[in-house]
Amino acid sequence: MVDRLVNSEANARRIAMVENCFGSSGQPLAEQGRVLVGEGVLTKMCRKKPKARQFFLFNDILVYGNIVINKKKYNKQHVIPLEEVKLESLKDEGQYRNGWLIRTASKSFAVYAATATEKEEWMAHIEKCIEDLLRKSGKQPPSEHAAVWVPDNEAAICMHCKKTQFTVLNRRHHCRKCGAVVCGPCSSKRFVLRTQSEKPLRVCLHCYDRLTRDKARTPRPLPPAAVAKGAGDATGSGGESSQDDDSDDEDERPAVEDKHDEPKFYSDGEKTEDTENHASKDSTDSTK
Question: N or C: which end of the chain has fewer CB within 10 A?
């Protein structure tokens, strides 16, 4: 399927259209051998609440962004190499149905499709792209993945000390190792998680103790920047630091109820302008 679409004019037009929709807020997406496999809207579980995001599946990357004007303009583009992705199906729970995890070494999150059929389609196409990529490159799938952050509204009190209640002054923070929602004093430590950043990141006390124990058991030379930092910073128990922000949560526009559009997946069976032109030419030749 993908191989036949690589050099098609229809594929080039689709990719150009995606680039135009992101405009200057996105990066160039047209590359030799890249194919747009499918596109559609999924609900992404953000830090504060679930939000609709536009997703584009290519044969080597997964791209998503905030919807500014449906089908016309997107921003806050995120590009995820598929070689780093692992999918995990989620069981239906209450209002959260037809979901799965998209896990990478640097970031992991949950998404939800509108129907069970759409979930199956998305997961099957993504898995196929990952399988093809790893087979061609000979690489092994990553063994370590970032934790999925617990949404803010699922923790009224600190998940570490079980005492601190979150208020306007006692803000929520996320441990970058386990994803738990914790208070400032319970996340006053920093540790370098190399798959996420070269800078020390906020971790809860439990993870900090475990990480330092593991490091002591397997000593190895590390550059100075990789040494774990100690006690907290100025934002340890006050307002949220920028490191705790999820950029997907910055879109606070009210959700617009639009008619649901099913995702589009482009295949050999799709009648593109290229195939129509060839068919027209063959028909003309046969009448000569």
Answer: C
Q: Checking phi first, is residue 285 left (phi over 0); if not, alpha (psi -120 to 50) or beta?
A: alpha
CA 245 to centroid of chain Cα atoms: 15
The contacts found for 233-238 with CB under 8 angstroms, 24 or more apart, are 233/188, 233/190, 235/184, 236/184, 236/185, 236/187, 236/188, 237/170, 237/183, 237/184, 237/185, 237/188, 238/169, 238/171, 238/184
DSSP letter string over 230-264? -S--TTSSSSPPGGG--GGGG--SPP---PPPPPE
Q: What would the mean pLDDT of 248-276 be, rounded to a whole number?
A: 59
Q: What is the residue whose two structure tokens read 């990357």?
A: 61
Count of CB atoms within 10 A of residue 186's CB? 24
Spatial separation of the C-alpha atoms in residues 90 and 114, rounded to whole Å: 14
Predicted confidence (pLDDT) per residue in 20-72, tens digit: 999 998 999 999 999 999 999 999 999 889 999 999 999 999 999 999 998 89
CA distance 138 to 271: 33
What one-letter code names the amino acid at 229? K
